[in-house]
Amino acid sequence: MIGGGKGAFIGAVHRIAAQLDGAYELVCGAFSSNPEKSRACGASLGLSPDRVYDSYQELFRQEAQLPEDERVQVISIVTPNHLHFEPARMALEHGFHVVLDKPMTFSLQEALELRSIADQSGRLFCLTHTYTGYPMVKEARQLVASGKLGNIRKVYVEYPQGWLSRFEEGGDNKQASWRTDPSQSGIAGSMGDIGTHAFNLAEYVSGLQVTQLCADINIVVKGRKLDDDGAVLLRFDNGASGVLIATQVAAGEENNLRIRVYGEHGSVDWQHADANTLQVKWLDRPTELWRTGTGYVSSYAQHNARTPAGHPEGYLEAFANLYRNFALCIKAEMEGEKPQKEWQDYPSIEEGVRGMAFIKNVIASGKSDKKWTDFKV
Amino acid sequence: MIGGGKGAFIGAVHRIAAQLDGAYELVCGAFSSNPEKSRACGASLGLSPDRVYDSYQELFRQEAQLPEDERVQVISIVTPNHLHFEPARMALEHGFHVVLDKPMTFSLQEALELRSIADQSGRLFCLTHTYTGYPMVKEARQLVASGKLGNIRKVYVEYPQGWLSRFEEGGDNKQASWRTDPSQSGIAGSMGDIGTHAFNLAEYVSGLQVTQLCADINIVVKGRKLDDDGAVLLRFDNGASGVLIATQVAAGEENNLRIRVYGEHGSVDWQHADANTLQVKWLDRPTELWRTGTGYVSSYAQHNARTPAGHPEGYLEAFANLYRNFALCIKAEMEGEKPQKEWQDYPSIEEGVRGMAFIKNVIASGKSDKKWTDFKV
Amino acid sequence: MIGGGKGAFIGAVHRIAAQLDGAYELVCGAFSSNPEKSRACGASLGLSPDRVYDSYQELFRQEAQLPEDERVQVISIVTPNHLHFEPARMALEHGFHVVLDKPMTFSLQEALELRSIADQSGRLFCLTHTYTGYPMVKEARQLVASGKLGNIRKVYVEYPQGWLSRFEEGGDNKQASWRTDPSQSGIAGSMGDIGTHAFNLAEYVSGLQVTQLCADINIVVKGRKLDDDGAVLLRFDNGASGVLIATQVAAGEENNLRIRVYGEHGSVDWQHADANTLQVKWLDRPTELWRTGTGYVSSYAQHNARTPAGHPEGYLEAFANLYRNFALCIKAEMEGEKPQKEWQDYPSIEEGVRGMAFIKNVIASGKSDKKWTDFKV
Amino acid sequence: MIGGGKGAFIGAVHRIAAQLDGAYELVCGAFSSNPEKSRACGASLGLSPDRVYDSYQELFRQEAQLPEDERVQVISIVTPNHLHFEPARMALEHGFHVVLDKPMTFSLQEALELRSIADQSGRLFCLTHTYTGYPMVKEARQLVASGKLGNIRKVYVEYPQGWLSRFEEGGDNKQASWRTDPSQSGIAGSMGDIGTHAFNLAEYVSGLQVTQLCADINIVVKGRKLDDDGAVLLRFDNGASGVLIATQVAAGEENNLRIRVYGEHGSVDWQHADANTLQVKWLDRPTELWRTGTGYVSSYAQHNARTPAGHPEGYLEAFANLYRNFALCIKAEMEGEKPQKEWQDYPSIEEGVRGMAFIKNVIASGKSDKKWTDFKV
């Protein structure tokens, strides 16, 4: 693991997600750019001191020299955005599989470069767009893909949070500080942090691609350097249209991602706050509540659940699904077997490239007087 | 009553709303442009045949000649949009108070003219933006106005319906036929029918006015002549921004109007599907469920409810609140008394003008390549 | 109308319910045992002074002497329980149809007597068990009756309120005072006031009859004279079992009546707080949300709704459904026609008798050391 | 781990729960009474073959002989009920801490004996009443304990499931087979399997103890040997009363545990289906939604959550909370430190004894003609 030291939210989440199903063991790390902090973190995690490194560069150098059956196999990178590309590049080039937190890189340029490196490396790559790990999100995608809803006409995706309603940065809120800092986050704040999740979900569930967008991007809290709020009109490659909302100044909201996709005959409605239910609505018959853990859901939803219906599975399980599917694919590759299609359903480098293109295009649109901006990769 | 014959949805609603609290008695009507149908309708409603008229022109002529204590006092106009202006004008000019269904007129031009007629007439005027009649919508407005949420930053309003998902017009669905017909509805379809409700609600609850908008307006169902779908980015006079969604092709949706208004410290969230609850969310404390019929709500919410908490009040009661408040104001005027502020809280001609301006501006924006269109009245 | 003067909750509700659909006109009344109050109330309701009476006895005497086409046709009795029997008896014997508030009488003995009087009178009788007027409650009954759920196994009905959590009686809370006073309410408090509603709903939806019960009846608030809380184990005539909860000391609850009926293959779940939704749950497929105003519900549910799906209908509409159906049956009788089966679906004297039997049996069981008490009428 | 081989639901849950926070490592096991199956299971879990045992007896014999720093420290027992006592006894007597699935033993007699063994052993003991591991259940308990709700008056707890609606036993549904078999489950079916959870939750949240009960216990599905349904009237040591429902034939229900506790001033309402919300209702002010992961909840709720508000934590996390708190207490003991009070809040042997007493008393009451049965331990 690279990054994820004290005060990092997502590092701990990655560790739980990885070990939840027992498919990974944490063996080495460079947890902070401060060697002392890295060592303290490694110790608290029970790692052997000789595998806690002062820098990610050293980690790669040393681990690559270990015998193949001892050295680390998969590198998790959980650093702020500006420190995604370089460790990911080195990991792939040293022959390790990579799990990388989103957004994939600091810029679209880096993303394209990383894609080409990954393609050449032959190593596997997983981008942690967590929400696609929820069983009922997978079910939504499958239902759309089945054609039962007819042609898709509308996609509404929204991700309201309230935690940046005040000027939180600059104090000891480490999360707020780096996420609002252009030198660490890149050109986008909320649009990069949560807008990319919403965008990814929209494309994942609908099976469509955005072709044009029209964005209203705002800095609401005085003194903030990056956008903390935005709304985007969307057009998709099949002619459908939609709306994407991402805001971190919606006072009182927790983490209320929601997606609705409407077809000719019916629609799906998934809300993070009730993550184990998929509302399926129809033109002429009762709304149905499809649930995690039941016998009637698709093989994708079944594969990504661990308990019978009525035992809520949450954020950590969704995250763990990414790790588990990635592990199953790595194992299959190692054993020369073809991975099941359900295992391969995790976000990868292509989603990362599109996410970075979203950031570039949405920020450009925000600054443009023209209504529609073409979505260019 | 003018309009509201057989097959008309909203006419029956107006009648129930008017009589629910016993403040009105239906005494005369011109229910259809077809005299036979008008008479049949009048008969079925138990009206005296001599007060069922063949046309609204005749109604005004005849009623105006009746002795003051016999003739009608308030005219309800529930015709399609193209037949709003003329009967409303005549009603005011003949000295009757007017209840008019929304959108107010066929065009903004007519709306401005009607406003000037109404101002000169000294008669009272009520526009039936039903949703502002809900106790918890009134509570939302009061809470925003109280300043407890701080400055308003975001307004999200959405009104998804699914009933026009197919090509319904042209058959015997009278509702679908006139609402999608430019010669009866005007320049807008969904934006006029439900977009104006959403717009009105946004301004009513937030206490703000839209100054700019950016619209994506669509005809989704093949062969339809007016928009059946749209999404609009909004900017308000205090610097807040927002999103308005109005669609009638959201398969599986019923009548799911929802408004969320976010301030610096908290927010309100009202959904038509759970109309007696107002969710009040705060930055640092639990979300609260404010309820119709309780003792802790404002005088506005209390005045507009009839039963103790837990006895659901619905659409007809909300509609009846408009009629009841209008009656209370008329009665106060007749008795030379000052109406209470709670009674005066019904939508009037100013809301009608802004609604018509919304239609004009939103359709113009939909056709424009520029991102932002100024909201002009 | 008899009763329903100032301070009476249910009188006003009856008046709105009766006039909501325009099928009734209030023509006369004896609104209070205090003649002055009665006259003041009549005046405020716009009644002709000569038809506002000082007592119900006088009302019957005078109205019976009016010409048939002038005199009142239906008597609504909305007095406290101890004043139900006598005016109901007189109304029937004077040839009027009767709408009577529940519980039907002061004692089971009176109920049996009233039944025999009603049978002989040939007049129609409606008992206002409001909750059976909700479209989705009717749908629940129809679904059970259709056999689609299989044999019924379990019935859970609960009616928690919180408004008697404190000692409210004795002050100016008129509702609390008479409802907790044995001389006005009878042998039961909560069990009579809301327990009878729950019991009626259980039998109405399940189509079953209670044969045995086991009650825990409590006076929770110190100084109170009648039960304010209770729970009852139930056994039904088909072998099903169930639980009935009725309490008025559940602090924080409004009026949260709920019924769940489970069959071999599925179940129905209706909650007053979400009255326009019927949850239909199945063993092996998704839960369905059946909704008021849709096209797929039964003729009973359709007949008892006024607006399209998504326009919430509430307590007053449910109440109005009782009045409307009663009016339709009276009209059919007057015209010598057979009423439709949907119209006849209103609670009548038989439900009243069973309600009074419930009160007698449940209070007896509460005092008994034996587990099971037979349900005797 | 003892038990938890192929086809066992709860064994896998225990393993995930234990490793979720990285505090446990699975080192040895006797997973099945069939040695071959045990070895296969151990292999699939990646255990060293020399620590996969043919029987639990052998496990204790062998592990006890390993050096202290190599041998297992905590024994998880996840066998059917009839195989709880003996391995638990042996584990304690061999000096191991014990995690035991509920209900604690086959009979109350065994439970009392085990308590005395545990007391003498000085080893720690955890009984996996999972639901007390939810942050919002802990919050409910804390809120009741704070006195803010006033004296507790009512406790309603219900646990409806539908999975035994048909005769599932005898086929290859291993879960159904042993849970309905008196020789493996003991004298109770549903009352032992889920009734004990409901009972435990009632006492845990209310802080009260049941003193009397009156049970209706049923076998609904023909041919079944143990109760699959029941309802129980409860009396508590402070004079409060309540209702407990536990059924496994509620067709369409998943795992819908719910508890409501009412005090003089307010109440708490927790539902498993919305596990991260605690509804707190008050007599005179809005209902509040208290949420996992927020800053305003108690130290107990905060300690038992891993992510910020809005990231749902579910069943596995609740289960993991038990394991984590148990680990923290063991570690504190090993280090001679006093465990924090939040760590000590896990169900222990006392809850196990009361659970077994509940089974004995509730089954006795079910057979009794007397209304009330004293709760005897």
Verbal overview:
Four copies of one chain form a homotetramer. With 377 residues, the first copy, chain A, is of the alpha+beta class. Chain A folds into two domains: 9-123, Rossmann fold (3-Layer(aba) Sandwich), CATH 3.40.50.720; 134-307 and 349-367, Dihydrodipicolinate Reductase, domain 2 (2-Layer Sandwich), CATH 3.30.360. Chain A has helices at 9-20, 35-44, 56-65, 85-93, 108-121, 135-146, 174-179, 182-185, 190-206, 299-303, 315-334, 349-367; strands spanning 74-77, 97-100, 125-127, 152-160, 210-218, 229-236, 241-247, 258-263, 266-271, 277-282, 287-291, 373-374. In chain A, the strands form two sheets. A nine-stranded mixed beta sheet of chain A has the order 11-10-9-8-4-7-6-5-12. The first copy, chain A, has a three-stranded parallel beta sheet with strand order 1-2-3, with helices on both faces. In chain A, helix 5 (108-121) links the parallel strand 2 (97-100) and strand 3. The mean pLDDT of chain A is 96. Chains in contact: A-B, A-C, A-D, B-C, B-D, C-D. The interface between A and B is large, with 44 and 44 residues. Strand 11 (287-291) of chain B pairs antiparallel with strand 11 of chain D, so a sheet runs across the interface. Chains A, B, C, D: This is Putative dehydrogenase. Chains A, B, C, D: Residues 138-268 form the GFO/IDH/MocA-like oxidoreductase domain. Chains A, B, C, D: One of its GO terms (molecular function) is nucleotide binding. Chains A, B, C, D: Residues 2-126 form the Gfo/Idh/MocA-like oxidoreductase N-terminal domain.
